[in-house]
Design a protein that fits this description.
By secondary structure, the chain is of the alpha/beta class. It is built from 9 helices and 9 strands.
Length: 237
């Protein structure tokens, strides 16, 4: 058994996941040890000002120092630290990467959208998919959304789009990006029947809990529309 850690520096929150990894009957098993989430909202700076402010950069470094100490205490074997949409678009992203290396001794990689999508479907989710269905895997983040199409249990296509919850709240999403996403989905699913969608991400998980569905049961489009209409009737305040 190995103990791995993953650090995700997103546009909304920064997360540390520590898990024990084992392999049984050719399949990988993951047992979550601990999950820490810090809501830094780096996207508010990056999407509006194209840079991370000095205050948020310092908060991020302090968070990385805490994560480094936790990984040491948990005797982590290996780790991977990735930054996504907000750090990609921040002009000072690479400067912050160097600062984190100097002060927290963590090697951080700012990854492109396609690599982000590749990492998502590299977690062996195909092991739990029905081989007779086509799946659209949707991961909604603060700054981007990653889409992957699985056919016969194998990934067929994937793409990252600059649409996310923080970007939308800051009115930084673009109509042409929405159109591009719709076109991509239609193109890659038009020849497949029996299509099912799998959604991940904090906001999607929250919607599922609000729908009060049983674990493992799908949410109907009707219930999703009902929730949408209810939520859009409220102001952000």
């Amino acid at each position: 058994m190995l103990r791995y850690a993953a650090i995700d520096i997103g546009s909304n929150a920064v997360r540390l996941l520590i898990a024990d990894i084992s392999k049984h009957d050719g399949k990988f098993k993951y047992k979550k040890n601990t999950l820490i989430r810090v809501p830094l909202r780096l996207g508010d700076d990056a999407f509006l000002d194209q840079k991370i402010s000095a205050k948020k950069a310092e908060d991020l470094v302090k968070t990385m120092l805490a994560f480094k100490n936790l990984m040491d205490v948990y005797h982590v074997t290996e780790y991977l630290a990735c930054a996504t949409s907000a750090m990609r678009e921040a002009d000072n992203g690479q400067d912050i990467v160097k600062l984190i290396k100097q002060r927290a001794e963590i090697d951080l990689e700012i990854i492109e959208g396609q690599r982000e999508a590749n990492i998502i479907y590299a977690n062996h989710i195909e092991q739990d998919l029905d081989q007779n269905k086509t799946y659209l895997y949707i991961d909604v983040g603060g700054g981007s959304t990653e889409l992957s199409v699985f056919v016969d249990g194998a990934p067929e296509a994937s793409k990252s789009f600059n649409i996310g919850t923080i970007r939308m709240l800051d009115n930084q999403d673009k109509e042409e990006t929405w159109d591009e996403m719709k076109t991509w989905v239609k193109h890659h699913t038009k020849n497949h029947k029996n299509l099912a969608a799998i959604g991940t991400g904090g906001n999607i998980n929250k919607l599922f809990r609000m729908a009060d569905e049983k674990d493992g049961a799908p949410m109907s489009l009707q219930k999703l529309n009902t929730l949408y209409n209810k939520l859009t009737s409220y102001s952000l305040k």
